[in-house]
Amino acid sequence: MASLILSPAEQDFIIRGVEKGFRGDGRGSLDRREVTLRTGMISQANGSARCRIGSLGVGTDILVGVKAEVNTWAAGEPEECGTIVCNVECSPSAAQEFEGRGADEINVELTQLLDRIVGGEQSGLDLRKLCIIPRQAYWVLHIDALVLDVKGGVADALVWATRAALLATKLPRVVVESVTDDSGVARAEFDVVDDAEDQMGLEGARDLPLAATFNQIGRRYVVDASEQEEAVTQAKLTVAVSPKMEICAIQKGGMLKGFAPSLLSEITQTALRIAKEEFARFDALFAEASKHNGELDEEPSTGSTFLEPF
Amino acid sequence: MSANIFDRRRVNGPPRSVEPLYTDEGDVKPFTNGGRADGRSLDQLRPIFIKTGPLAVQPTFSPTAPSGSAYYEQGKIRISCAVYGPRQGRKSNPRMGSFDCDFQYAPFSCSWKRRPHIKGADEKEIALILEQAMAPAIRLEAYPKACIDAFVTVIESDGKFATISAAINCISAALADAGIELYDIVAACSMSLNASQWVSDCNQAEEDVSQCSLFVSRMPSADEITYLLQQGKTMPDQTDRAVQTCSNSCARVYAVLSRYLQASMEQPAS
């Protein structure tokens, strides 16, 4: 993402602006850009969402699909849990350097970040509920994210889209019954009910965290950096906070600098402070999105028409 | 996927193998009756051993020899690191040098499973973490158009987060050995949360039963945290406390590192 090269004058302009509390697009240092959320646009997936952070059709754009599969248990795997497998892929349409193997590094970074945030117990999802028959069968949730456009703040958009997709995910009901075979041995068997009406949401999806990335620019930091701001970012810190105000994951990024310890604790405090507003904003957007769930003809979801004109 | 690829250039193990019978020793539960299995106190680190220059070809200078190298032990963890450079790189930036890191587990390094030769996603990510943790310490602007490479091999690992922090300490020593200009030595330390108690420098068994692991890498004399990674859920004040404690432990690791490096300067290795 270092493709954007700014002149020293422009870099200086951004850095000094941030230190004085001004940003190029008029936001305050803790303001997020406009967020657009749509859910249920992929009919083949169990849950899907598209999140764009940015305005007027220009912004970081991420499409997430959640697909559930039944897996047979093998020795060495957890006995009474389902699993979550994350994969993030940056489309070459997002930036030229993602062509070929150019996106490998960022794919790995984002995949591991997403896995760290939603891949285990820390996500709040009840993985035990994803177990169908202990030591026999369990659900695997494949979270596949496609980064369609990169204009700064990819990690945040990724977590927002994933949270929406998991909240929208519906698993088919599974009927477990005990079958006695000819030799009189009883064993459990299951049946996946193939009925679009008979589905249920994921247990604990409301506890999923949201992430905010803080970009250190000069001596201050900003939330949701634009592409230009990201080009002068010295270090960044992604903090994932759950609705219960717990910290679910922290990861530092950026090669150029570290954080002063005082700044670090200030950032985690700020992350918790803004989390409440972020969740309120997410909930409003998600409720709006679920209202016209997947009605594509009313709400075209591709290209710049994805956004409603102002 | 990678496990099924037959690699004819290497000696492959038998296609089928039987799990050996383990003695009861492996079944010791960590944190039973309040203490740690190895008798350490909660904030005690495992003993550290460092040696710089194990990979140098002496006395004849060879162009293939690394500019600096280090071997690091911390309890069961054994890591070796070779640093090459500053040398001509593929990516040449006229204003700054680049620092690249390569991280690999040896196939036999992990207790639970054999590692395939092909790099997994976690190894690639750890390499990225190491780059981001070390780069703030290196005076990259002093090496325009050049490239500095660090190759880390984990011979034995014991705890993922502990291994990453050990790798950071090892690279620090190797970079110093190579004579790369640094702002400060980076020292790292890991911690895990178990039953709302933070435990320093956990081994694999202890990390497995913990609900949260975290590591901090820090430049103690510059007082700058170069990396912070937390996996798992905590209350906010717990994270603050852990970063504090980890920072103090980093200072202790730093003291060991700098004492060794100073001594190795005064008495060149025979």
Biggest interchain interface, per-side counts? A-B, 35 and 34 residues
What letter string, H or E per element, gives the SSE order of chain A? HEEEEHEEHEEEEEEHEEH
Largest sheet of chain A: 6 strands, mixed
Low-confidence stretches of chain B: none
Supply the CATH class of chain A.
Alpha Beta
N-to-C span of chain A: 29 Å
Mean pLDDT of chain A: 85
Class by helix and strand content of chain B? alpha+beta
Order of helices and strands of chain B: EEEEHEHEEHEEH
Overall structural domain count of chain B:
1
Cα-to-Cα separation, first versus last residue of chain B: 47 Å
Domain module tally of chain A: 1
Number of helices of chain A: 5
What kind of assembly state do the chains in view correspond to?
heterodimer
CATH architecture annotation of chain B = 2-Layer Sandwich
Low-confidence stretches of chain A: 296-310
GO biological process, one term (chain A): exonucleolytic trimming to generate mature 3'-end of 5.8S rRNA from tricistronic rRNA transcript (SSU-rRNA, 5.8S rRNA, LSU-rRNA)
Subcellular location (chain A): Cytoplasm; Nucleus, Nucleolus
Keywords (chain A): Cytoplasm, Exosome
Pfam family, one (chain A): RNase_PH_C
Provide a concise account of the structure shown:
The complex is a heterodimer of chains A (310) and B (270). With 310 residues, chain A is an alpha+beta fold. Chain A is 25% helix and 31% strand.
